[in-house]
Design brief:
By secondary structure, the chain is an all-alpha fold. It is 84% helix and 0% strand. It has one domain (3-105). The termini are far apart.
Length: 106
């Protein structure tokens, strides 16, 4: 194998690892949001992840310059919509279960 081919394969493998790590990170964040969003006792605990996401994206845009303005804006809006919809869905589901349990308890 030539040195160029080995370098290409190593670079390609590194990109694949970055993609896998990025995907796992997204799944972990969505899982945390799912867990935090279902808390009835602390209603606003589901707002923690969306706020951290917005701050992280703002940091990445202002200081790391990883993406252009429109890419930043699209990722921020889509990410916030997804995180907030998980929060809203989990909270409403939990509320319905509790009210259903209260109704049938009496």
């Amino acid at each position: 194998m030539s040195v160029k081919l080995v370098g290409f394969l190593i670079k390609k493998g590194a990109n694949m690892v970055d993609s896998v790590i990025g995907t796992l990170l997204i799944l972990v964040i969505a899982g945390l949001q799912y867990i935090l969003g279902g808390s009835v006792r602390f209603k606003y605990s589901g707002a923690i992840i969306p706020i951290l996401f917005a701050l992280f994206m703002l940091y990445m845009y202002l200081f790391a310059h990883k993406a252009g303005f429109w890419a930043f804006l699209v990722i921020l809006i889509v990410g916030e919509i997804l995180l907030l919809s998980i929060w809203d869905n989990r909270y409403e589901t939990r509320q319905r279960k509790l009210s259903h349990a209260q109704t049938h308890k009496n």
